[in-house]
Design goal:
Blueprint: H1 7-12, H2 19-23, H3 31-34, H4 52-56, H5 64-67
The protein binds iron/sulfur cluster (2 copies).
Residues 15, 18, 20-21, 26, 31, 46-48, 62-65 line the site of one iron/sulfur cluster (SF4).
Length: 71
């Protein structure tokens, strides 16, 4: 399911706590809505499966910052 980019989804996103986010010095988040990070992050672990939006929007897969937005 597509995830909207709004205040609710940005507040719920737990990307900032994830190892990929931290090791690649990412600054955005909500990549399931935004799509890939321009920083071309290296995979170091993904927190998406623990995110409240994952169940709420019936997401599948992970590493939205690398693979692109959920559809
Ligand atoms: S599912 Fe992942 S990318 Fe989407 S808001 Fe949650 S932690 Fe961020
Ligand atoms: S999409 Fe996954 S890997 Fe990328 S920053 Fe968010 S939690 Fe981390």
């Amino acid at each position: 399911m597509k995830v909207p980019l709004n205040q609710d989804t940005m507040m719920k996103c737990i990307c900032p706590g994830c190892p990929t986010f931290q090791k690649n010095e990412l600054t955005d988040g909500t990549y399931c809505a935004m799509g890939v990070s321009e920083k071309k992050p290296e995979m170091k672990g993904c927190n998406c499966l623990s995110c409240p939006l994952y169940a709420e929007y019936n997401l599948s897969g992970a590493y939205f910052c690398i693979h692109g937005a959920a559809d």
